[in-house]
Amino acid sequence: MKKYLFIFSCLLFTWAVSAQSMKELEKLSWKEIATKMPAEWYSTPEAKAIAEKLLLYQSDLGGFPKNIDFHKEIRQDVIDQLKESGIGTTIDNNATTTEMKFLTNMYAQTGEQRYRDAFFKALDYIYLSQYENGGWPQFYPMRKGKSTAYSGDITYNDGAMVNVLKMLYAISDDDRPYTIFDFTPEQKEKALQAYRRGIQCILDTQIRNKKGELTVWCAQHDPQTLLPAKARAYELASYSGNESADIVLLLMKVEEPSDAVIAAVKGAVKWFDEHKICDIAYIRKKDKQGKWSAHIETRKGAKPLWARFYDLETEQPFFCDRDGIKRATLAEVGEERRGGYAWYDDGGNKVLAEYPAWLEKVSK
């Protein structure tokens, strides 16, 4: 009897430790769990329990939904929808690519075949959802309804397409962590071709201003015309001072860049330099109740910022509320949207900082 009581006590202690560990993990973001834990953690019971949840969410086509904290609750309604139609799977908000990184970490530490299978299923989804023009939609299959019509647009928003292209190039180039899958030459070539089509799509969608000069990109582009496109009511077609920064940084990493890639980078860098906003600070924060607020302050010598949206005709910054009417200043936007959306970004600073070394390299 004492023997069994001892075993039961050990099991109870293990369960208590595990429960405590899961509570601690719930304080982290899903991205931190998926990509930033110590390598050995991905072989723990906690990691495997999270993986069980994640696999429930994978659609039959291989994609994943966005904004799901897989280390927390299970959303059965979302799972049922995915199994029925697949609608809701996306590359937006780091979805699918982040889950693929998690599956890579799980397979690297456990060697379990189902994690490898799930990764390749997601990779097939990436190939399946790519347009012939090289772009990717925000959602695949495309969501239906007037309010979600933009879900079929070529999507640069929040780094969606850039994330996919980075992963595909890493696969094609035998970069870690994807080397764990031992891709065949044929598989690496498939990834490389998809990557190259994506880069061509970026070149084809770059906006030219009224002078005919290459500039930057919109957050999303029409898949047929390749022109800048509107998304939500307050996300009008525009020059994007946010998404364009990641696109330029991606183009700077293209090996043996063509004349077209070089011209694209030069045009975009010129635009970033001409449209930087100096001597202001963008103050955005949450109060104790979790409510966002935002405002602009004059601050001499502050690091340059770029507005999220610039008018396609005037190239001046603009701001929108849910009514879709352009405003000249952030202060004119209602409190809910003013604080609830990121209206400025400093990503252009990295573009301008890395440009001289890139220019010297391609000029040799």
Q: Layout of SSEs?
A:
Layout: H1 2-25, H2 30-35, H3 45-57, H4 76-85, H5 97-110, H6 113-129, E1 154-155, H7 160-172, H8 185-205, E2 220-221, E3 239-240, H9 243-252, H10 259-274, E4 280-286, E5 292-298, E6 306-307, E7 309-310, E8 319-320, E9 326-327, H11 335-339, E10 344-345, H12 348-363
Helix pairs in contact: 3-5, 5-6, 7-8, 9-10, 9-12, 10-12
Q: State the major sheet.
A: 2 strands, antiparallel
Order of helices and strands: HHHHHHEHHEEHHEEEEEEHEH
Number-wise, the strands total 10
Tell me the CATH architecture of the domain at 25-160.
Answer: Alpha/alpha barrel
Low-confidence stretches: 1-17
Category by helix and strand content = mainly alpha
Strand order of the largest sheet: 1-2
For the record, the CATH class of the domain at 25-160 is Mainly Alpha
User: Mind telling me the C-alpha Rg?
Assistant: 23 Å
Amino-to-carboxy terminus distance: 80 Å
Taking all residues together, what is the mean pLDDT? 92
| Outline | globular
Under CATH, the topology of the domain at 25-160 can be stated as Glycosyltransferase
Q: What percent of residues are in strands?
A: 5-15%
| Helical amount | 40-55%
* Number of helical regions: 12
